[in-house]
């Protein structure tokens, strides 16, 4: 991994066939996030702390299921149910910082369809590789969220 400071802005949109209140609830619930958040089936998210409120902090470990090497501290700055989230994430491994991101989540609604937009402003402390990994991870996680919400809609019917 090349060393050095790198920056980028990542924007991801999804259309989810579920009401925005249910989509918002999937962000709020750590059990749900543990299901839809990992980018692949062989990855895991394990919550150590969960304080989903303005001023609150979540801490979780993530990575390959047998190697949860990444520690993520999430600090919530604004929570406007069910419209918006604004938070930062600090990712470390073995106590060394890898990246810091400012993340905004906009949750729009038109009847039973939610328009989700996530914007990640990331500063990598270890070169551009983690930016690509962050983008890919968020893309897959939001695809998982879409599938998770749409599967729950079928179960509720």
Based on the model shown, name its key terms.
157 residues; alpha+beta; seven-stranded antiparallel beta sheet; 3 helices; 7 strands; 49% strand; globular
Q: Count all strands and give the number.
A: 7
Whole-number mean pLDDT: 93
Q: Outline the low-pLDDT stretches.
A: none
Instruction: Please state the overall shape, judged from the principal axes of the Cα atoms.
Output: globular
Contiguous helical run count: 3
Distance between the termini: 48 Å
The structural class is alpha+beta
Percent strand: over 45%
Radius of gyration: 15 Å
Structure description:
The protein has helices at 20-28, 30-36, 129-156; strands at 6-16, 43-49, 57-64, 67-80, 84-93, 96-110, 113-124. Strands 1-7-6-5-4-3-2 form a 7-stranded antiparallel beta sheet, with helices on one face. With 157 residues, the protein is an alpha+beta fold. The chain has 3 helices and 7 strands; from the N terminus they run βααββββββα. The model has no long low-confidence stretch (mean pLDDT 93). It is 28% helix and 49% strand. The radius of gyration is 15 Å and the shape is globular.
Helix-strand layout with pairing:
Layout: E1 6-16, H1 20-28, H2 30-36, E2 43-49, E3 57-64, E4 67-80, E5 84-93, E6 96-110, E7 113-124, H3 129-156
Antiparallel strand pairs: 1-7, 2-3, 3-4, 4-5, 5-6, 6-7
In short:
This protein has 157 residues and is α+β, with helices and mostly antiparallel strands. The protein has three helices and seven strands; from the N terminus they run E-H-H-E-E-E-E-E-E-H. A hairpin with a 7-residue loop joins strand 2 (43-49) and strand 3 (57-64).
């Amino acid at each position: 991994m090349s060393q050095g400071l790198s920056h980028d802005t990542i924007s991801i949109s999804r259309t989810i066939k579920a009401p925005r209140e249910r989509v918002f609830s999937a962000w709020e619930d750590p059990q749900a996030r543990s299901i839809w958040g990992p980018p692949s089936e062989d990855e895991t998210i394990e919550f150590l702390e969960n304080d989903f409120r303005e001023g609150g902090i979540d801490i979780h470990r993530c990575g390959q299921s047998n190697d949860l090497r990444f520690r993520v501290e999430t600090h919530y700055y604004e929570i406007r149910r069910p419209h918006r989230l604004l938070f930062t994430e600090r990712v470390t491994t073995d106590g060394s910082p890898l990246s810091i991101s400012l993340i905004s989540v906009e949750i729009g609604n038109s009847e039973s369809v939610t328009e989700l937009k996530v914007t990640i402003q990331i500063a990598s402390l270890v070169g551009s590789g983690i930016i690509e990994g962050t983008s890919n991870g968020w893309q897959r996680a939001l695809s998982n969220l879409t599938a998770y919400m749409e599967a729950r809609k079928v179960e509720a019917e």
